Every structure is written in structure tokens, then in C-alpha cells.
Amino acid sequence: MTVTTMPPGPPAPARVIAHRGASASAPENTLAAFRRAHELGARWVEFDVRLTADDRPVVFHDDRLERTTDGSGALADTPLAALGELDAGEWFDPAFAGELVPTLEEVLDLLAEMDMGANIELKPDPGREADVAAISLEVARGLWPETAPPLLVSSFAPESLAVARDLTPQWPRGLLLGALIDGWSDMAAAVDAWSVHCDAALLNARGAAEVLDAGYRVMVYTVNDPGRAANLWDWGVDSIMTDRPEALLPLAGA
């Protein structure tokens, strides 16, 4: 395969990215998790964005509330006011009781205050691929400081990334794939992706080289073992998302 030159783009994200914040030591996707990531020395975090019933972007991973709050039902059926009454911390540890599901605005304000970079993963409900991108990125565009590292916008949904390409072309896009499926490069090219994000358990050295040779950054999730992280960096992986940034940062060198 012919090696291509890496296309011009923003500076690479940190080699270690705190996955949903420091989610091994604080409840995922909460302000507490992002503060903890900062305390542990992480310079970048990754988090998920979904829309509430009243089209407010909030930072939340699952499509349902049960796993990480004391509520029940679909997040997409829950208005923001009702979401604000739920506890999003006690499930993790009683010390975090009272932690809330944060809005996108709250998270971006906090990260800007702490001078941290961010990878926003857009998680659309079926049929709302364009909506979650348009609404979330309009909010982000109004809040994210021009002096901060460009936001990296990722998604498994090419439709969401296409909206991101058109609405916020100044921010790089990451195509989430899990495994390198047939036709992945066509999918990446269609949304003018800057990076390709793979499940570390489904990536091998040959696959990493294929992505790099095609001119994309390689990012992987979710790795908590330092030995595994070292192998991935040896393959040329650019950034690793981890629940335990403190375990990987000493090896990262950046």
C-alpha cells in the first residue's frame, strides 16, 4: 500500500484521553469525572452527547437512564427539567450522591476553565442523526474558546458527521467504527474524516498500519492496561481512550 502524507489539520490530541472523564474513579460523564481527570493530569477528555425530549444536548452515554441514574426510561423521552431531578452519582459510590447529568453547556464551560481538550461523541437516537449534530454543535460553536484546542467531533453515525463537516468545518471529525469493516475508507472520505476510532480489542498492527497509510490518525478505546497501551503506541496509534488516565500517563511521553 502506498503511504500518503498526513493531510493538514489541527494538532493531534493528547496521547491519553480520559474516557467519559476519569470514569474508573468517578461516575462517568459527570462534572466530577472531568474534574478528576484534570486532577490526575489528563489534558483531554472524551464524552457522549444525546438529546433530551425537549432537544437539549446533555452529556450521557446510554439511551436509557437505569444504569447510571436513579431514574428509568429512555433519555430521549425525558425533558431536561425531569433529568435534573435525577441522581447520577450514587450508583457509582455514595460519596458522589447528588451528582447530576450535566448539560453540554456545563461541560464545555468546565473544560474551558480547566484548559482541557475534548472529543465529543455524537450519539443519535434513530432518525435524529442530523438533529443531534446540528443542535449540539450550534451550542458548542457558541461556547468553545477560539484559543482552545479544536474540538474533535466523532460518531458512529456518518449522517451526524456529515452535518458536522458542513456546520463546523473548522473542527476535525473522527469516524467511529469498532472494527475496520469493508469500505471503511470510503466512509471516512465521505465525511472528510481526520481520524478513525477503533475498538482496541478489534484492532491489530496490520489494521493500524492500514489506517495510518491511508492518511488518518488512529485512535482507540477503551484501554486500561499499560502493557496493552504500550503495544498500541508501538503500532503507531495516536491516542488511547482510557478509564484510568493515571495508569497510562506515565508511559505516554506527552
Any key phrases for this structure?
254 residues, alpha/beta, TIM Barrel, 8-stranded parallel β-barrel
Give the overall shape: globular
Q: Which percent bin holds the helix content?
A: 25-40%
By CATH, the topology is TIM Barrel
CATH class category name: Alpha Beta
Helix and strand run: EHEEHHEHEHEHEHEHEH
* Unreliable segments of 5+ consecutive residues: 1-8
Query: From the alpha-carbon coordinates, what is the Rg to the nearest angstrom?
Result: 17 Å
| Overall strand count | 9
Notes on the structure:
This protein has 254 residues and is an alpha/beta fold. It has one domain: Phosphatidylinositol (PI) phosphodiesterase (TIM Barrel), CATH 3.20.20.190. It has 9 helices and 9 strands. An 8-stranded parallel barrel has the order 1-2-4-5-6-7-8-9, surrounded by 8 helices. Helix 1 packs parallel to helix 3 and helix 3 (104-114) runs parallel beside helix 4.
